[in-house]
Design brief:
The chain is mainly alpha-helical. It is built from 9 helices and no strands.
Length: 170
């Protein structure tokens, strides 16, 4: 399978990580490497470990490149989308300041999907509505359904007093 013979020190380190590793991932990776020295194919290891052959392949490549210490590092997930940058944040802030009608969107208020679509056209950065909501939170905005109040009607009444602390009256 292309695994060079393990030294005694490597075997001891792998055994230690397999039995006492900090996380399940370290223990699993160590066991995969140990099985790599004993078994003939990655398919056999995947069957014994009940994981995909791709997991075995990645783990063995990690070990070949960096030894036992490489097994302890977390794999970085590849981001599927682009990250927002300062220009995107500025465009978001400007859109919130101007409002949708001033930006050419025929709506009275912004929604997260509308903002995502508008910003994709303006900045060429395509993001989902969850990213837009995070961006709005950084700017101090909240994008959710409006609540209807009749406070303006109540304030017109001569006997209306401001609400007291702890009052449930809106």
């Amino acid at each position: 399978m292309g695994m060079p013979a393990a030294t005694a020190a490597e075997t001891v380190a792998l055994e230690c990580d397999y039995r006492h590793g900090d996380s399940r991932l370290v223990r699993q990776r160590s066991q995969i490497v140990l099985l790599g020295y004993e078994m003939n194919s990655q398919e056999e290891i995947a069957t014994v470990m009940r994981c995909s052959r791709h997991t075995v392949l990645r783990t063995l490549q990690l070990y070949r490149q960096g030894g036992c210490s490489a097994l302890r590092t977390a794999l970085r997930s590849k981001s599927s989308g682009q990250r927002t940058d300062l220009a995107w944040q500025k465009a978001l802030a400007e859109a919130m300041r101007l409002g949708p009608q001033a930006c050419g969107v025929p709506r009275p208020t912004w929604t997260a999907p509308l903002l995502a679509e508008y910003l994709a056209k303006k900045t060429d950065v395509v993001v989902g509505e969850h990213t837009v909501r995070r961006g709005l939170a950084l700017l101090g905005y909240v994008c959710r359904r409006p609540t209807w109040t009749v406070r303006h009607k109540a304030e017109e009444q001569p006997d209306y007093g401001p609400k007291e602390l702890g009052s449930r009256r809106s």
